[in-house]
Design a protein that fits this description.
Blueprint: H1 3-6, H2 17-20, E1 24-27, E2 48-49, E3 57-75, E4 80-88, E5 95-100, E6 107-127, E7 134-142, E8 148-151, E9 172-173, E10 180-185, E11 190-199, E12 204-213, E13 218-225, E14 232-242, E15 244-252, E16 259-267, H3 274-283, E17 301-304, E18 313-316, E19 321-322, E20 329-336, E21 339-341, E22 347-353, E23 357-365, E24 369-378, E25 385-394, E26 400-409, E27 427-432, E28 437-441, E29 444-449, E30 455-460, H4 466-470, E31 480-482, E32 488-498, E33 503-511, H5 525-544, E34 548-550, H6 554-570, E35 586-587, H7 588-600, H8 605-614, E36 627-629, E37 633-634, H9 648-664, H10 667-689, H11 694-698, H12 725-745, H13 751-776, H14 792-795, H15 797-800, H16 812-826, H17 841-849, H18 853-863, H19 896-910, E38 911-914, E39 917-920, H20 926-931, E40 933-940, E41 943-952, E42 955-962, E43 970-973, E44 982-985, E45 988-989, E46 996-999, E47 1004-1009
Parallel strand pairs: 39-43
Antiparallel strand pairs: 1-3, 2-7, 3-6, 3-7, 4-5, 4-6, 6-16, 8-10, 9-16, 10-15, 11-14, 11-16, 12-13, 12-15, 17-18, 18-19, 20-21, 20-26, 22-23, 23-24, 24-25, 25-33, 26-32, 27-28, 27-31, 28-29, 30-32, 34-40, 35-36, 36-37, 38-39, 40-41, 41-42, 42-47, 43-46, 44-45, 44-47
Length: 1012
Amino acid sequence: MNKKLAAGLILILLVSASSARAVEATASSGQDAYSAGNAIDGDMSTRWGSHFNDGEWWQIKFDEPRVLSGMRIAWEAAYGEKYEIQTSDDGERWHAVYAENEGDGRTDIIFFRPVKTQYVRMQGVQRGTGWGYSFWEVEFFSGQQAPTIRASSPERGRGADKIVDGNPDTAWNSEADGEQFLIIRPHQTMELGGIELQWGADYAKSYAIDAYTEKEDDWKTIYEEDNGNGARDYIYFESTPVQRLRIRCLESSASNGYALAEIKLKGGDEQATPIRHYLSVARDSKKGWFPRWLNREQEFWTAIGVVGDEQESTLGETGTFEPVKGGFSVMPFVIAEDGLIAWDDVRLEQRLEENNLPLPTARWNYGKWTLDISAVSFGEAGASSTAVRYRFKNRTSAPFNGKLGLAIRPVQLNPAWQYGGLSPIRNIECSDGEPYSLVKIDGITRIVSVTPPDTMGAAPLKSGDIVEFFAKGEVPSSTVATESDGKASGGLLYDISVPGHGIAEVVVVFPLHESAVVDAAWGDPVEHFAQVWHEQRKYWHELLNRFFISIPEQRLIDVLKSNIAYILINQDGPWIKPGPRNYAHSWMRDGSMTSVALLRMGLKEPVKKFLTAFIPMVDDKGWVPWIVHEGGHPVGFAADSREGQEYDSQGQFVFLLRQYFDFTGDTGMLNAGYPAAVRALDYGQKLRAERMTDEYKNDPEKRPYYGILPESNSHEGYYPAMHSYWDDFWYLRGLKDGAYLARVTGDTNNAPWIGAAIPEFRKTLYESILTLIQRDGLSYIPGCVEKSDFDATSTAIAVMACGEENCLPQPYARQTFDKYYDEFVARLKPGGETTFTPYEVRTADAFIRMRLRDRALTMLRYFSTDSTRPFGWNHMAEVVHGRVRTPSYIGDMPHTWVGSGFISAVRSIFVYEYEGSLILCAGMPVEWFEKGFTVNNLPTQYGLIDMRAISQGDTITLEFKGDAIPDQGFDFALPEGLEGKRIKLKGSKAEPVNGKIRFYALPATLTFSEVK
């Protein structure tokens, strides 16, 4: 157990063989690896974890009533922001003894008035993240372990014990003014990193916190406050082993003594850090003065960058800008006659150029004026910059006179729960240079204000945050600030004086690399920004319009196009990556499916670069690295452990090679990659052989493992490693593609064994699944052997990528997707919102291939509206929370593996490949045929295809053109609503077979008319 966690505590609950029988831990949810008992097993590596709901609870029943005075909760990342500690004599009637309304996780040290009880419950009220509640360990203080409190002068009935009674409505009141003190003495030495003070009406304007430690053997001042403002103070300091804690009140706010309602002790793991100081300042400041996440609210952002560059900038929905990964942020403010205007004072909007190009704008609407914050990246990869334009528009006929302020802070736009947080600025220097004003951060030019600011300044946090200066209409007097902890900030102020209906523009350039050059062209910042914007608009417009799609629901196409762009922005050099911040590595599974989405949209070169870089990384035995780390370094092979292995990459690599060849005809790439593909499949056979021994064949308990791939961590939820059917479906797909490539290359040596392995492995795989279904009485296809779990999003890969829809065992496959869809539509109802991952979009793709187009469209409409946050920027995170502002991990944004799934699903609406055929219009509703649609130059593995629907009177005409020549022809998937009509193919009567009309060459015309 963590020694600091347990320092000085005599636990009334000793977990041993005997005491374990004397106590009982239960919870509203949580089992197996997250069961309730894990929180009292004395092991800080095990934990209790609940379902993802606010009202979850955990409780303990003691062998007999005991007197308790408090407890310690060591939270996992999923903590309670609001919760109660309740006690009960019978487990039925509960009484709250403590309430937490601003929990921040880590370690909560809780005291309340001593109470005799047999039951104690943590009753969740509101989660602090999008997950559930989870803690590593809970420990209790006995009545004898209550801290002793001494005050210099308590009023009658308002003694010092009130500050630890768990009731904020009671308070210690000093009897006198002047210097007064409280001394808190824990039962034993306690490691502390901070305290929280909740003041009454009469608070201390000036006070100090002293600690008495064994090491110092004397009082030591660890915190001083000279400008207290009452309410609640969050105080953090260096982790300290405290024997006694003293609060010295020095000056009263009203010269009427002091009132302190509650004190909460913070564990040593919550000690002072620079970001803790910013959290404290933000809590005491007006909302909108700091990045949204410092107020414990999720902010969403978008990425801006140059294709192939390793740096991307991010722009937040509030207009906060972060130039580079791990970098500082810049926040805008407007100083007007009615004061300092921040993001929380305005109505926010977001949009993209042409509704889909990756040129974002965040707009502030403030009645009389608007402020548009627009960002564009430019330059060569490795030497690029991002320019931000602040465009102020006066919406009235009266002149406007004010200022635009840009606050430069060592705080990222990327939140702490996203592994962001602090970006230290130890030295900041503002200078009026020639030809532009500059801001150097730690000696490097990071900001070039091509619009000259009227004044600049910098200061350390201890002198006040930059926003405090802005609130007074000024900046710090110094242009240089140094702070060893990295808490220096700066500000630029620009005069905004415009006539009625006038416009003022400020342009600032952020070099993303030291090699980036801000040249003389920026001497006219307004004109040159417009030129750069136009050039980038033209570039992205041409790139994203290699095909043309016009449908009645154009939102689907806008989101599709935007995600193509985001994929390219996230790509670093040759490496296709899912995100600009957290997910800067390159996975084969993400890379393969994202590459295929690009190929389906006519983009070949990025995929060629990815494959060219990846092929040499397949080792001599055929092991395919499942991840290439940032910088181009592949993960190492763990020969002695199944943990850290992911075997889906064995099939995904072969799948990608085949897809690339079909879309490009690039025989050079095929010849370069084919030997590695054969090795990958051969290694897969060797892995399977580990599960084909008599042990697995004859032991009924091990029979479900027979002949499938070994356990791995390919699925994020499978730790420890488990036998995931996801790996097996991908390997089956790899075998099918390997057999095809063997035929294409004329490889007569390997074609026989690869071809023979397909039916043999398919038989083994489905026998494993059916054995598990029968053994565990399942009604669905499970995700893995060990858990027999329901995971339709994982199973969907068997359909939308692996082409097994006609082979999956029934009725279990149908029941799997029926069950999923029932759960999906439940979240569309008010109150049904929940946390989920948009990876589920691949299930929409599966529904199209299963001829369930209404289900697919319902899902795609949901993903392109409710799941895109903010709506105007057209992208999704990896995790979408039911509560929009939940301060919790969202993976990354824009998350382009999710985006690639959306691209492929929407593309399947129009066309997809299946066993040598092109399936046409399988996802289109009849309304689109009736209103008309056009598709031009849409790539397939067999060539380009065009299609058009024209509705005239009672006749609908479909025209198909292009150069696509599929081996098995074309299948038009007849939608409901066109069934029963007179159908003609090329002028001759046609009868659908199994809901499809087949033809073999382009051009082709289908007409649908009413039967007279």
